[in-house]
What we know:
Number of domains: 1
Largest sheet: 2 strands, antiparallel
Number of strands: 6
Strand content: 5-15%
Radius of gyration: 19 Å
Strand order of the largest sheet: 1-2
Structural class: mainly alpha
Number of helices: 8
Distance between the termini: 45 Å
Amino acid sequence: MHPVLFQIGPLTIYTYGLFVASGLILGISLALKEAKREGYDSQVILDLVFYLILTGIIGSRVFFVAQNFSFYKASPLSIFKIWEGGLVFHGGLVFAIPVGWILVKRQKLLFWKIFDLLAPSLAIGQALGRIGCFCAGCCYGAPTELPWAVTFNHPQTLAPQGIPLHPTQLYAAAANFLIFIILMFSRQKIQFTGQLSCLYLCLHSVFRFIIELFRGDPRVWIYNHTISLTQGISILVFLAAIIISVLKIKSKRKDLV
């Protein structure tokens, strides 16, 4: 829609970067508020979040570049222009979870408790980030004749121009806002440590699998152009979250990890 928010001489402010930054700030603020409510040291949580964001961005970018390798092979310097758009959530998840596990253990904290604390922040941060995707034109949808189709015409958009497309970025933003609301209402009904985390992973996986059906940007396929890599990862994450939930419920322990 509007990849560039404004430009003054050599200074260019990209709308994508603004929304991603806003999502990060809001997510961090919420995480620190939750940390205070739960009695954690805010500085410890802030340090943890910093490293998670850093590794998450690296992982997200690596996956996006891999999915669009032909473009970045011809323009390698564009790999570093993340402010223009192009992050893949599951890539960030793959990179951030092991790093988070190590950092949390070093602080002698419980991984699932910290994940529960951060889950709502992840959801609201993603919601704003997806609005940034919409403005940049990345993560665009397949052609459609539905009345709510969007047409990108800006010369700097990452989406195909002049073609009505599914606004998959807005689908994802709405899904993450809904996940955020569900998680916030579920905080007071926790039955085991990790419940919010598993709920987040399950809901995100389901929504992402469905939205993937309407995506039109380059995909990495793992089965006959019917199951994408993202859908495959979504299935695995969903199953893992269900298994962890079942094990925790059966163990009748709040702190399995």
